[in-house]
Every structure is written in structure tokens, then in C-alpha cells.
Design a protein that fits this description.
Layout lengths: L7 H16 L6 H8 L3 H7 L3 H18 L24 H12 L6 H14 L6 H9 L3 H8 L1
Helix pairs in contact: 1-2, 2-6, 2-7, 4-7, 5-6, 6-8
Amino acid sequence: MFGKQKSAVTVIVKGGFEEARLRGDRRLGTEHLLLGLLHHEESARTIGVDLAAARAALDELDRAALRMLGVEVGDLPATPRKHPPVPATALTSSARAVLNQAIRATTVKTREAQVPRHLALNLLAQKRPDPVAQLIDQLGLDRAALHGRLA
């Protein structure tokens, strides 16, 4: 009929790897997992942030870090450079832990429906200096309110 739908976990993880590649990052981090969650429509609605806004916030964090080092970056090209894919095994230890916790919190039967929620909760629980904590703050997300919607 309509073909097989991709699983939520596949959409999120592949989206995270794609975001890392687009940014030219060599590893998938927790910030990429948050961007990957925004590739999943239901998760994006729950979080209340669109992908473009999250990308812009992450770019601003990068610019701020460079300014702290005395480097001023001008306007970036609208079309990103072509970067090679990020290897499937290239996860930061924090990203691997968050993803594993989300999977372990589910059963095989509930995994499809529950991993996105558990992943979002685990990402919200991260503290600075983890990049996703900085991104959540940059986006102005209310952690308590979002936690309440997800729990």
C-alpha cells in the first residue's frame, strides 16, 4: 500500500548523523541527537522548536565560543560545504550513554513509541558543559515544563 514507514529511532539517529555531517563534525554528540529529535515530527511538536531555529542556536553557540578566543566569523555561506558522512560508530561517550539509556528504558514492544520520549528526557537531564545543555539554554526551553509534557 503506502510502503514501510521508517521507525522513529531510525529517523532520529539518522537525522542526528546528518546534522553532524552538515556541520562538518566528525562525531555525533548530544546536540546532534537533539537536532535528530527535531527530524521526528511528533518529537519536534512536543519540544516546540523547529529544526531551523535549533540549527541557528547551535551556530550562535559556535560563534560565541570563537569570539571568546578572539576569532570573529563573518557571514557563512547559505549552502554548507560538502562533508563526508560521520561513521556510524563515531558517537561521543555522552551521546552513546544517552541513547543507550533511552533504549534500556523501553521494552522491544514499547521501543518504537517510547524511545523518542526517553531520549528527550535524557537530553533534558544533561548538565553543562555538555553541548546539549548549552543548546537547550540557548533555545530558551523551559526544562521543567518540557519534562512535565514528556513524563
